[in-house]
Amino acid sequence: MSSQTGLLQPLWLLLLPAPPLDITLSNVKDVYASTISQVLQKAAEISASSSTVTILDVALPCPKISTSKTHHYAYTQNLLRQMYSLVCLQCTEHSIDVRYCNDVDVRVLLVQSPDPARSETSPGSVENSPFVGPMVTLQRLASCARPWQRLCAMDNDGGEVLLQTFLRLRNPSLEDARDKVVIERFIPERSPHVRSSNRTRNGIDNGKPRACHDSVAVGGTFDHLHIGHKLLLSMTALVTSPVIPTGSTQRRSITVGITGDRLLENKKYREHLQDWRQRQSAVQAFLSAFLVLDAPPQRISTDNSDDRKGTQERAVKDSWSSGLTIEYVEIFDAFGPTITDESITALVLSRETRAGGETVNEKRAEKGWPALDIFEVDVLDASEDDASSEEAHDFQNKISSTQIRRRLGDRSGTADQGQSSDVDVV
Description:
Blueprint: E1 11-15, H1 25-50, E2 54-62, E3 70-71, H2 73-93, E4 104-112, H3 138-143, E5 150-154, H4 157-168, H5 175-179, E6 182-186, E7 210-211, E8 215-220, H6 227-238, E9 252-259, H7 276-291, E10 299-305, E11 315-320, E12 324-331, E13 346-350, H8 354-366, E14 373-377, H9 389-398, H10 401-412
Parallel strand pairs: 1-2, 1-5, 2-4, 5-6, 8-9, 8-13, 9-12, 13-14
Antiparallel strand pairs: 3-7, 10-11, 11-12
Helix pairs in contact: 1-2, 2-6, 2-9, 6-7
């Protein structure tokens, strides 16, 4: 989400300690809810007073993250899903929403847990390579040039150690910027009481590693980008092969299919529907922030085409110095490039659109192409939190583009509903 006023968006960083071993929503709440709640409320106050959306980067340690060609998909997906669910629950509880002009743009950044065999205590000693995510160390995070104006941490022993380590690892060249950063500590309301679970699907050893891919696709409408979209896009980046070694000729690509405007003419509350360029820009901004920590991003080239391969499809291509290319393509059906580009080998989709993935592979089989490796992302919900029916309803409304448009209509006094709700393509 971007500012509509042209003002510089407030940019904050929240440093969190390691997650509980058993990743359930209840346990994640016990460890993080108090701090997340306090930071979100303060950020929302800034959004409301400055008339621009505060961006909150949340640095979350991930024990199962890796720079190898395999990825602990089930664990990482569950960790991100529960963290974004917690954010949504807190925003619901404290009325942080576009309706009240106090929205907060939360982006969860995954940080590798420290390697005991390596020292991460010296500033400015980061290897000579781009600050590329989604898999970064605390040292890389601390040494990057992203211009955070406020640094938030837990006010306890673990939080203070993490904060001081981060500050010690800051690049000396960032001294002037560091002096301008506001540091704020938030006291947890109580000590966490983490509960054990017999649901092995949530455990730290859950799921065998899955192979990463050099060419991954994802698709959707992506109207008024919300945390459900962010989870989907984050997992797409995470199943893409990691940064290539220096000198390698291997290339990596992400293809993002974004539904064309003419397919959305009958959407509900269409007067608040973002056009393709707005939706593409929002997806591009999120993926750029998730994948490249430096500011400004180190793009090699950006190609804006309104006549892609002789068609009327629009496309934007970013080529990064890490060897990654991201292409944002306008699509007019449920398949997009997955049935026109044989080089794509994986597809990331929400569990509710599983049937679409099966249909894509049927189409590819008809062409004699290999099937795509399908990665499913669980739907966000509040059911694990014993939420009331009203709370669960409010939660679901926050991850529905249709309901976001409705709330914008309520705020502005417009209520032209149109006909259909949002159903994202694969």
